[in-house]
Specification:
By secondary structure, this protein is mainly beta. About 5% of the residues lie in helices and about 45% in strands. The chain has one domain: Immunoglobulin-like, CATH 2.60.40.
Length: about 120
């Protein structure tokens, strides 16, 4: 399956439909934007996996989630500046033949992630 992501809004108990996300490849401190997308009603990339098994390469990547923008669009009153603005997750792919699922559980004040299945 390659690389996928999924975001759950833990404040409202729903998928984070409408959240903007960026995918980057990284090398040291340098990052290169691969794609931008907006999560669908299920909180996932509307085009499916970010990379399929044939396209995923070993290396380092970054997902950037616009958490503050998403919660503002839901009408949540956030302080200025917001506690969480954009959440960046840097992760490595050691086995390009494996599936890497990078979920995010987010509220305006906290987030967690893990390597999912």
């Amino acid at each position: 399956m390659g690389l996928s992501t999924h975001v759950l809004d833990t404040m409202h108990g729903t998928p984070a439909a409408g959240m903007a996300v960026e995918l980057h490849t990284t090398q040291g401190e340098t990052s290169t934007l691969v794609k931008r997308f907006v999560l669908n009603a299920d909180g996932r990339n509307p085009d499916g996996p970010l990379y399929d098994n044939a396209s995923l390469k070993t290396g380092t990547y970054r997902l950037v989630f616009d958490v503050a923008g998403y919660f503002k669009s839901r009408g949540v009153q956030l302080p200025e500046p917001p506690f969480l603005n954009k959440v960046s997750l840097d992760f490595g792919v050691a086995d390009a033949s494996a599936h890497y699922h990078v979920p995010l559980l987010a509220s305006p004040w906290s987030y967690s992630t893990y390597r999912g299945s």
